[in-house]
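Subgroup meeting minutes
Present: P.N., E.W., G.H.
Scribe: E.W.

1. P.N. recapped why we're keeping a running log of single-chain structure predictions: easier to compare across weeks, and new members can see raw inputs and outputs side by side.
2. G.H. added today's entry (388 aa).
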Amino acid sequence: MKLRVLLWCALGVAILGLAVFAGWVASLPPATGPVVAQAIAPQETSATLAALAPPKRARPLVAIIGLNDATETTDYLMPYGILRRSGVADVVALATAPGPVKLYPALTVEADATTAQFDARHADGADYVIVPAMSRDDDPVVLQWLREQAAKGAVVIGVCAGAKVVGAAGLLDGQRATTHWYFLDELRERTPSIRYVADRRFVVNPGVATTTGISASMPMSLTLIEAIAGREKAAAVARELGLAHWDARHTSAAFKITRPFALTVMGNAMAFWNRERMGVGLSRGVDEVSLALVADAWSRTYRSRAVAFAATHDAVETRHGLRVLPDEVAAQWPVERRVPAFDDRPPARALDEALAAIERRYGGGTADVVAMQLELVRAPAPQSTSGS
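Output recorded in log:
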């Protein structure tokens, strides 16, 4: 009798849970409408560039900080790759402790130095500090180091949910700010004095800046290049990246949890038996930006995870000197589960083609889920090309 009662109670709880979930899904908007981002006024652009002007050195020093146990892949690698590609600054990738930096949702890298080693070499601090999203926002080493760098005159830039880390360090108090759409409420709750600015991919104050989602690393990095070396240099790098515009234009209302988003995530997550490990081959000289974007995208489908493989356990050096550690040692990967080649494309196109490949494999809803996580308005699917 007791067992029967318990079973009926469990069934009742399950039915109630399903009813609550169904009600929540029904309450969500059916979809986001067409988005048309408004152009940025020239005066605002000028003020942004002035606030990002190199604070100390003619050739600035940029430090990108990461937690060893988990730092967001594209937030960490994209600024590194773009700024190193430009050649306008000295760029170092840092970790809070010795050892590899485990990125999420994919890849593992070796940092150039620890924060302690950086401090020993550069007592006057960096010109710019880039703060990616991290697995925790309250790491005491990170927060103290950010406060010290800000006190030495560095411009601190929180990328994506890295804004929460910058806020936890007290550097956003009373400042204009933004962050990834999913974490905005959390940032406003934890740092209630911020003045949220909608419809901007990045928001810059003297001494501190923040961006929206993961893909905003690209326009933010190009804007930093423009502030350091001028419009012509930034335009040249943008052409190499395959990006036509890099100003702060954005439509915040386009990014929210919708009914199709929730149903796709739930459906993919529940199909736990149908996970795929998609191989990404590491080769010397691979572009950091393309690698980060493609591995990140394939690891956000709720159906697949990107696995970096190489012929040996040795770290593989990227185009601009960062060392990536393979997840697995393999001479080959099954062709049907290998990420399509991407390194001969500009990074922006590599991402577009990755989203198109994800759509072909898992459907348009899954590709849209990935784009929403990256806070990216999807471009039309490109035509297939040889070697893709």
